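ESCALATION

Customer reports they have been waiting on this structure for their group meeting. Please prioritize. Original submission:
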Amino acid sequence: MNSTQLKGNWEEQKGKLKQKFATLTDNDLLFAEGKKEEMMGKLQIKLGKSKEELHKILSDL
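Update from on-call: job pushed to the front of the queue and completed.
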């Protein structure tokens, strides 16, 4: 998967996450290269979910 496809896929998932969790903002879902774990940590804290729960939510989108 090239970076354009990955970015498009993330944009779609980001929209679904914002629908499911109204408290999330664009800044919460800012996907910067090399910062995935940092973003996931912030999401865990904001949503009160474990790492496993968060991965399950993302895989179910």
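Sent to customer with the following note: The mean pLDDT is 84.
Escalation resolved.
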